[in-house]
C-alpha cells in the first residue's frame, strides 16, 4: 500500500523469490547451459558451443517439419478455440434457464482433459467405425479417415483441445457480462444489427480478455504434448509430431539432452517473441478501459 | 542389507515378483524394496535415476536399452565379477553375449523371446484355408479369404514395428544377415536387398495379405489384441512375440490360435528367426552391496524360491534350471512352450540390440511409413533407411 | 388527476395485438435455436464423461465393441478388482497418498500465491517489473528440459522418494499461473476496503488475512480446484520422484499395471479413472457457483 | 410530423407490472420531461419508446406511424444515455459517425455531418480523443452529438446529467434547452422526451412536465402550473426545493387544527376550497413561510432544530407540533449562531398555501381557479 | 488534545507534485471542510493525514505528536470513504467492531460500544445484515458508525455523500453536522476533516472551509466570511450557487469600463479598494443584481438569452457586452415567456460587489474591512 515502506512488498514476495532462487532458477539456467553441451545423461555434459543450435537450425529436417507443424497447429487451434469459446460464451450471455447446467456441462471437459481415459476414448471416437464417423454417415457424409490420413490426424488433436474450451469460455463469459448493456442499446439505436453490434461493440470491448486468452492458449498450444503422445504418437507421417513431442523424444528416447534443451530454448524463444509481438501489437488492437489511479 | 529393485509390468508380474523378492530376501536376510510401475514412463524414470545416480540396486532393463545406458559396458555392474554368486552356467553363450556390452556382462537375460507367426485356426478353417507354411501359401490364403469371406479378411497383420520385423525377416532370409553389422557399425544389407524386402511388404499390401497402414491407423492406433477385427477373426494371423501369445489368444474367445514356425520360401538362406532377450536384470554399478544384489539376482533366476514365485511373469525363463523347473512342474501352458520352442529351435543370425535402438527403429518405421503412404519408392526408402541407420550406428 | 384519455380505436388495437403476437413468436423461435445449439453442444461435451462412467461398468470385451455407453451386462468387477490392485495396498491407500500430496500442496499454494499476488498487486518496490517478468517467463519454457536438473536438485536436498518435491515448490508460489491469475483478480478489486482496514488499525498482514482473503475467496476456490485437478492428474512428477509403491498417488497407481506389451483390463482402469475424477467432479459441483463467479468477478480486466 | 403518442401503454416484467397503461401525447417540437422518484418507470417508458424494451400492451406512435414492432434503429429516434454509453474504444469522431457509417452513407456526407455537429456542440477539438480522455461535460456533449447527427424525429434523454457535478449540470442544462430552441428555430424536428428524477431539471427544461409515480401519470402540465397548482400532494411534494412542507392537519369548518394549534383559513383559501373530509394535509412551500413576531396572530410556533447557511439564504429546520418544517429565509436577516434552538413563529403567506385530501392526496384547494 | 496540524505538507507522485507544501491547522473539535475542484488534491491530502499515502515532505501532527511515520491504525484517526468501503463479507456488527477486535478489546466493551454507536446512528436494526443488504443511506451510517466506534481524535471523511441521491444527501448532511455537535456537547473529541467538491456541503457543514486549487490552499475561513469576503476570484467563483459573475473590466480611476459601458464606483467601494493595476474583474453574485428600469443610472444593459424557472425564483442568463451574466430574481416578478430575448438593465447592489486583480486573482476590495 502506498503509505508503507518501500520494501514491504518484497516481504510478501519472499516465498516466490525463495522458490525462484531455490527451485526454479537453477534448473532453468541449467537447461540453458545444457543446450550448449553434448549431454547423454550418463556421462558429464561436454561443452560444444552453439553446435546444437547450428545443427538444429541448418541440418535438422525433422525440426523444420516439426516446427512448421507446430506453428500450423498453434495458428489453427488457438483461433478456432478462441472463436468457439467466444461463440458459446455469447450464447450463454443471454438470460437463459438452466444456465448453471450449461456452464457446468461446458466446463467439465476442462476438468477431465488430463485423464488418460479421455485420450483413449478419443482414439475410439474418431476410429474408422467410431461414433464420429457414424454420425457423419448418419447425416449423409462420407466417413473420414481421421487417424490414417496425414491431413486429418492433427485435426483430431485440435478437436481434443477445442473440446476443452471451457476455461477460455468462462473468462469470455465474465468479460461479456461486464460490458455495459447500454452500449448495446446505443448501438441498436444507431441502427446496428446483431452482427454489426458484435463486430463493432462486443469484440473491441473484450479485446483485453481475447488478448489474455490468446497468450494463455498460445503458450498452452505450443506445449501440447499429451494429445500427440497418447493418441497419434506423432504420426502418421509425422503429421502430428509437435515440437514438445520432439523435445521429449530427443531427451528420453535418444538421450540427447543437450539437443533437446536447445530445441526447448528455441521454442521458448519463439513463444517469447510471439508473446512480445502480441504485447506490442496489443497497443493497436486491445482497448483497455484503464483506471485513473496509476 | 537393504536393497531396492525396480521393474515395470502388469499386475501378474507385480504380484509374482513381490512374492519372489520376499522369499529370496528372507532366504538371504536382505530386505528388498520393490519399485514398480507400468510401462509408461518407466524409461524416463530409470533414465532420470541413472542420471541422478539414484537407481535401484537391481533393475529390470529392456534389452534395447543396454546400449543406451551402457555402450561401453560401464553403465552397470559387470556381473562377471559375481560369477561365484550367480550361476552363469544356466545361460547359453548367446544369452550371455546378448547381455554383454563391451566385454562386460551388464545384464542377465530373464527370458528369451522372438517373433513367431500365429494364426487363428478356427477362422482359417471356416474359410477352408490351411495354415500357411510359406510366403506363397500366405499369398494364396489371402486370395481364398477374399473370395470366401470377403474383402475385409486378412491372413496377416503388419503395422509399424511388425511391418519392420516382417521386412527384416524376409531380407534376413534372403541375405542370411541381420540388419546391423555390429562390428562394422553399419547396415549389413545393401540397398537393393532391403528394397526387395520393402517391395515384398508392398506386395503383401497390394495383394490384400495385410491392411494398408492408412486403414490400420484409421482404427485409432489400437493394439491388435484390442481390435474387434482380430477378435472376430477378420484378421486371422500375425507375427508377434512368443511371450505375448496368451494376450492374442485371449480375445479370440473359443477360436483357436496356433503358433506356427517361421514362414519362408524354399530358397531362403536361413529361417531368420528374430530372437533376443526380452529383458535383462542388471545390477547398479553404484550399489552399496552388489554382492547381496547378486545373491538376490541368483535367487530370483536360478533358485527354486525365486523360480517358483516368479513363474512365467516374464515369459519362459532363459535360465535353464528355471525353465526346467517350471516345465516339469507343469506351470506353463503348452502353447507357450510350443511357441517358445519355435523360437529356440529356429535358425538365424545373432540379433544386435541396436536393431531396437529407438533411433534406428524410428528411422525404419518413419521411412517405411512414407513408403506405405506412397510418398517414396522402395529403392529410395531402402537408401534412406540405410543412410539413417548408418548415421545412428556411427555413434557406437 | 390530470388524465389524457384518448379514445382508442379498435383497428389500431388489433394491429398492436397482432404485432405483439408476432413478436412473441419470434422470441420463441430465437430461444429454440439457442437452446438447440446449447443442448447439442452440451451433449457432445458431456458424452465422454457419460461414456466413461458407462464403460467402467462394461466387461473388457464389450468396451471396444461399440460406441454406446449402456453396458449390456453391467458389472462392477472393474471397481472391485481395481480397488484391490496388484500391490499389497488397496486403491484407498493411493487415494490417501494423493491427499497427503494434495492437501499441503493446495494449502501451500493458496497461502503463498495469495501473499505473492498481494505483494505484486498492492505494493510498489524496486525490481517489481523484473520479478513479474520472471514469473511469466517460467510459464513459457517446456518443462521436459528442466526435469533432470530439477531431479538432481531434489536429490541433493535428499527429498527423493518423499512427497516433498511434489508440493514444496508449489508452496513457494511455484505455480506462476496461479499467481498471475490472482494478481489479475486483485487488480479488479477496489482498494478502499483494505485502506479502511488499515485505518481501523490493521497491519498489512492483518489486512491480507481479514480483508483480502475473504474477498479473494472465489478466486482462491478456483485456484484450489485447478490445483486439485492438476495434482490428481499429474503423473510424471510422482513417477520420477516416488519410487516406493506404498507412496504412490492415484495418478501413478492408475498406470501401475498398464504394460503395453501385455494385455490389460480396461474396465478396471476406467473404473479407477472414474473414481479418480470423482473427487474433482464433486468439488466442482459443490463449488461451481463460487468457481465460475470467482472467475467472473475477477474477470481479467486488462 | 414528429408527434409522439403513447396509448394505453403497458409494460409487464413477467408478472410485475411496471407501467399501467399510460396515455401521453408529445406535440411536434415539444420538450417533454418525465420526472418522478426512482423506480416509477420513467426509464421503462422511455426505453419502450426507443424500442429497447418490448411493449406488452398498448401502442406507440411516432409521427402517426405505429412503431411497436420496429427496431430501434428504424424508429427515427435518437437517445442520450445516463452514462452517455459512448463507445469507449472509438474516438469521438467515430462515436459520432457510427450510426451513419452503419447506414453506409457516403464519406463526404458523414464528414460534413460530423463537422456540423461538432461545430454546434463545440467539440471539434476532441474529435481525435477517446471517450475516457474527455471530461464529464465533454463526454456529455459528444453523447448529444451522437444523437443529433442522426437528425432524429424524436430525441430521448435518460437522466443525461445525473453523472455530472452540480456546476456542470447547471451549465449543461442551459446548453441542452438552448440547443433545443435553436434546432426548432432552424426548422429541424426536435421533439424531446427527457427523463430525470431531478426536479430542478424538470422545472427549468421542460415545455411540459409529466410527473410519474409507480407506473402511472400523476400530472402533465407546464412548470409554472405544476409549481403553483399541483394536482395532488405527491406532485406538490415532488416539485420545488426544498420540498413543500406537508403538514398533517384536521379541517374544522373555517379553521385548521395542527396538533394543539389552530390556524384560521382566510377567505381567499376558503373560496377555492372544495372539502371532502376532515383529514387534510396543509402544503406550504418553505419559501412561503414568513418569520413573524409574537404579535402576529394565525401563525405556528416552533423551535429551530438546525440551520443551514446557503450563502444568500438560510434553511431553517423547525419542529412544529412534532412535525418537521423547513423555512427558507434570506441570509442577511439571520444570525446563524444565535437562532439555533430558539423559538420561532411562522406564518404561511396568504394565497400560497394548499390543502390536500389526506386519503386521495388530491388538491382540494384548486377547483375555482381551474 | 486532538488538534491537527499540517506544516509545509508536500506530496510528490514520482515526478508529479500533487501537494505544494500546504499549511493548515484544525483546532480541537473543529469541523474543517476541504473543498475544491476535482484533482485539486483534496483526497491526497486527506489520505496523507490518514497514513494511506506516504508523505514526501513536511509534517503532520495530530494532538502535537508527529505522525508522519505512524501506521494508519496508530494515528488515532478514523475515516469514512466515498463508497463507504464496508467489508462486504462481514455483517454490520462485525464491520463496526472490526477495529476494536483487532485491538483485542474485551468482549463486553466491544458489545457496549457497538450498542452505543448503533443507538446514536439508529442502525440497531441492521446489525445482522450484510452490507449489500443495506440501502445507500443505511450503508452510509454504518460507515460513519465504524469510524465513530473507535472514538478517534480526528475524523476524516472523503466525499461520503457523493454517492447518494439529492434528497438523501440533504438529510445525511444534517445528520452528520448534528452528530458532530452532539459529540462535541458530550465532551468527545471530534475534530473533523471533511472532503467534498460540493460547495453546498462545504457551506452548510463546515465550521471553517479550506478551499484548495491544484495542490495549494486558496483560502481558509468560516462559511459566511468565505461567501461575503472571498480572498480571490477563484474562491469567489467556487463558492455560491449559481456562481458569482466575474466580469472582465478595466479600472479607470473612479469608474469601471466593461466593454463599451462605464460603471461609476460608489464611495463605499472606493473606500475599500486597494487597486494594483487597471485589469480587474468585477464580481457580483447573481442574487445581488437588481433588475432596474432605464431611468436608473450606473447599470449594465444586456439581453436575456435564457431563462430558468426555479419555482420561487428565476435564473436569468444575460449577455452583457459579450460576457455571460446570471441574475437571480424572485419568480413572481417575472413572466417567463415574455422576457426571453428582451433587453434588460441590471444594477449591482451597493456594498456587495467585489473587485479582483486580473493577474493574481486577489480580491482588491477587502482591505479596509480586514
Ligand atoms: N428488467 C426488469 N425486470 C423486472 N423489473 C424491472 C426491470 N427493469 C425495471 N424493473 C422494475 O420496473 C420498475 C420501473 O423501473 P425503471 O427503471 O423504469 O424506473 P425509473 O423510474 O427509471 O427509476 P430510476 O430513477 O431509478 O432510474 C422498477 O420497479 C423496477 O424495479
Ligand atoms: N497514485 C497517483 N499517482 C500519480 N498521480 C496521482 C495519484 N493519485 C492522485 N494523483 C494526482 O494527484 C492529483 C490530486 O488527486 P486527488 O485524488 O487528491 O484529487 P481530488 O481533489 O481528491 O479530486 P476528486 O475530487 O476528483 O476526488 C490529481 O492530479 C491526480 O491525478
Ligand atoms: Mg431510470
Ligand atoms: Mg478525491
From TrEMBL, chain A:
It is found in: Cell membrane. The chain crosses the membrane at residues 7-34, 71-94, 106-126, 153-176, 197-219, 262-280. Residues 67-278 form the ABC transmembrane type-1 domain. Its main location: membrane. It is a multi-pass membrane protein. CDD domains: TM_PBP2 (cd06261). It comes from the Bacteria. Keywords: Cell membrane, Membrane, Transmembrane, Transmembrane helix, Transport. Belongs to the binding-protein-dependent transport system permease family. This is Sugar ABC transporter permease. It comes from Rhizobium oryzicola.
UniProtKB/TrEMBL annotation, chain C:
Belongs to the binding-protein-dependent transport system permease family. It is found in: Cell membrane. The chain crosses the membrane at residues 33-54, 94-118, 130-154, 166-186, 207-230, 269-287. This is Carbohydrate ABC transporter permease. PANTHER family: ABC TRANSPORTER PERMEASE PROTEIN MG189-RELATED-RELATED (PTHR43744), ABC TRANSPORTER PERMEASE PROTEIN YESQ-RELATED (PTHR43744:SF6). Keywords: Cell membrane, Membrane, Transmembrane, Transmembrane helix, Transport. Residues 95-287 form the ABC transmembrane type-1 domain.
UniProtKB/TrEMBL annotation, chains D, E:
The keyword Cell membrane applies. InterPro entries: AAA+_ATPase, ABC_transporter-like_ATP-bd, ABC_transporter-like_CS, ABC_transpr_MalK-like, ABC_transpr_MalK/UgpC-like, Mo/tungstate-bd_C_term_dom, NA-bd_OB-fold, P-loop_NTPase. Keywords: ATP-binding, Cell inner membrane, Cell membrane, Membrane, Nucleotide-binding, Transport. It is found in: Cell inner membrane. It is a peripheral membrane protein. One of its GO terms (molecular function) is ATP binding. The lineage of its organism: Bacteria, Pseudomonadati, Pseudomonadota, Alphaproteobacteria, Hyphomicrobiales. This is ABC transporter ATP-binding protein. Belongs to the ABC transporter superfamily. It comes from the Bacteria. Gene3D superfamilies: 2.40.50.100, Nucleic acid-binding proteins, P-loop containing nucleotide triphosphate hydrolases. Residues 4-239 form the ABC transporter domain.
